[in-house]
Amino acid sequence: MMEKFLQQSMDAEQKFYKYEEQRLKIEDKRREAEHARELQMLQMLGQMLAGISSAVSQRSHSRACSPPQRANRQSFGETINYNPVDRAFSPPIGISFFIQRSFSFRSTHSLKDMENIFRLVRNVIPPLTAKKHKGQDGRIGIVGGCQEYTGAPYFAAISALKVGADLSHVFCTKDAAAAIKSYSPELIVHPVLDIPNAVNEVEKWLPRLHTVVLGPGLGRDEVILEHAKGIIERTRAKGIPIIIDADGLWLIAQHPSIIQGYQGAILTPNLMEFSRLYEAVLRDPVDSDDHHGCVLRLSQALGNLTIVQKGERDLISDGQKVFVCSHEGSNRRCGGQGDLLSGSLGVLSHWAFLAGSEKTNGLNPFLVAAFGACSLTRQCNNQAFQKYGRSMTTKDMITEIGTAFNKLFEHEVKATN
């Protein structure tokens, strides 16, 4: 029965990706046609400007040969600040405004908005000070890791440390623990996820954690998913922020009620995961022409929790606002990038939650944290791709976290004694 269910799931995913490929081809054709129209418009404008310039040149030549009274009229023109030469090289107001709107206003506006949000991210980053103790800047718990998937929880946990958390815990199955421990001695690994009292064992640690990241490497074993469900419920009951990714989102699609209404949750679906969630919650297919609206509606339907839809541009919404993160990354899509995002988001969400809305100008702190994590992931991707190109992997991206973080955020965060 389970094999049949998994096969149906795989078939559905293949159909989705086939549909998405067709949609992207149509979108590419549309963009090409739009680009051709823009080029044609620019050519027409160039011809118009050349004609105006030629006319002004001829007029200036005729004025130079005209009687003195014509020169007097020119002087009169200057007193009212009429300059035909300047006008010749400045398109009419309507045309100039159209060009500005089409080619510069949108990008300038978005860059300004992004810089404003970057400033808010910097506001929530705690200063480094000698007065702090171990664990104060973040104790993050990663719930995931099974026999098949040991890399994902490691990527999430080590990313949290690299961003600035003090401690990273991984709650995984017994057969995944040894592998995860061998990746790094800096992780605290708990092989409890597949024991009968797994929920109680994880709950013991919840008071010591600032944030829980559930899903990386979780797998779809029914027993493990049932334990994950219980962990979500206990985490929610204690008011601890929780980031849900990967197979954790599969669980939410089956049981939306376990997270519905909990605004301390952040979901980080990719396109396929978002489509599955959207259809499960809203009982309608995703509108491919209205991505912003779909993210907004799904957040609202789930009780205004924060959603990060990963894609060509990351869309972030709490049901009231939609942020778009289009920070430059690369076209390389190796596995594990989402784990880097979820791990870094675990830290940033704790910092933002601790800082409060006064440090985010009244914005939902989780929106600011999500924007910071998306930007950081993209910056790591960009830097690693510049070095390794197609051979880049998530491990290469993780080595870039320090320099990427400094470049985006650290220059305004001062260390204090």
UniProtKB/TrEMBL annotation:
A single GO BP: nicotinamide nucleotide metabolic process
Keyword Cell cycle attributed: no
Superkingdom to which the source organism belongs: Eukaryota
GO MF entry, a single one: ATP-dependent NAD(P)H-hydrate dehydratase activity
Function (record text): Catalyzes the dehydration of the S-form of NAD(P)HX at the expense of ATP, which is converted to ADP. Together with NAD(P)HX epimerase, which catalyzes the epimerization of the S- and R-forms, the enzyme allows the repair of both epimers of NAD(P)HX, a damaged form of NAD(P)H that is a result of enzymatic or heat-dependent hydration.
Amino acids binding (6S)-NADPHX: 217, 270-276, 339
Top-level EC class as recorded in UniProt: lyase
Gene3D superfamilies the UniProt entry points to: 3.40.1190.20
Enzyme Commission numbers on file: 4.2.1.93
InterPro entries assigned: CARKD, Ribokinase-like
Family recorded in the similarity comment: Belongs to the NnrD/CARKD family.
Protein known as: ATP-dependent (S)-NAD(P)H-hydrate dehydratase
Amino-acid positions noted as binding ATP in the UniProt annotation, renumbered to this chain: 310-314, 329-338
Reaction(s) catalysed by this chain's protein: (6S)-NADHX + ATP = ADP + phosphate + NADH + H(+); (6S)-NADPHX + ATP = ADP + phosphate + NADPH + H(+)
Entry keywords, A to Z: ATP-binding, Lyase, NAD, NADP, Nucleotide-binding, Phosphoprotein
Organism for this UniProt entry: Geotrypetes seraphini (Gaboon caecilian)
This protein's encoding gene: NAXD
YjeF C-terminal domain span: 117-408
Cofactor: Mg(2+)
